[in-house]
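Narrative summary of target 7.
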Amino acid sequence: MNRSTPGSAVNANSLSISKSIDGFLKFKTAEGLSQRTITSYEFTLNHWLKHIGDRNVSDIQPSDLTGYLAWLRTEYKPVRFNGSTEPLSAKSIRNVWVTFRSFFGWLHVEFKYPNPSIEVTAPKFQKHPVETFTKEDVEKIMKACVYSRESQTQERKKFIMRRPSGNRDQAIVLTLLDTGLRATELCSLTVNDVDLKTGKITVRHGLAGGAKGGKGRTVYVGKVARKAIWRYLAGREDGDDVRAPLFISHADKPFNKDSLRVLINRLGDRAQVKGVYPHKFRHTFAITYLRSGGDVFTLQALLGHGSLDMVRHYAQIAEVDVEQAHRKASPADNMRL
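Modeled conformation, tokenized:
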């Protein structure tokens, strides 16, 4: 999209919200934002459009935005993938505000349209503490991968059955725990992305790799996880097909982040461990890595973070001194320049 100039045929007064959303999404796609971000923008803005109606963007006032945010907080009942209708979290509402800032900021730059979002105060939210699994939690989850709950019957003795997906589920849990991969990254892996001899796992660049921001990287799994992956693939007919998804569901389809979350949640229920979700394995990996002597800079690369902010947060929890770590790793100091 070409930037408008004074005298351009396109001006803010002639733009509808729907047309503006379409242009904004195309602009952001051309700008190189990840598909995940584009999808989030699209859902948020179209949900707002449905609520407010298709009007000229010049009609939108700060009160329209604050009113919508208030509605989300007090009246809106979302229906989620798992059937839950819990109210939106403060963080989710903050994300809507961030989307408004980006959308109206774009309109201001492109069409010199006054930005009503700058008069809207950012919704406050309290960061949740980083939760991790204990060794006992992981042991229970690993056991729940293999065995069903004890059956209670009146006509026969209690019994426990082995689950047919046990090898797959253990391989998934160990891979999440040993790599700190995001859910989408794990779901995007193919057999070819994993080298079971070295433990090297390649998170591919771009949309295909599922990485945040499309930035690929290399992570590693240890011997225990490699053995679990090998055992799982050995039982699959397509286990040697380099193009095949690394993990597949009962329907022989690759997992997505929603179906993976359902699987992990169910494992937690079966194991009777509270708060089991894919990203918690990422937190556990990071904290355990630091407490085991890993350095914050390598952890940043393994997690795929663009800055040290989140890693610094992990370091505080793990009681690792980032400043001290840098003193040890400083290239200029170590080269004695």
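The chain is about 50% helix and 5% strand.
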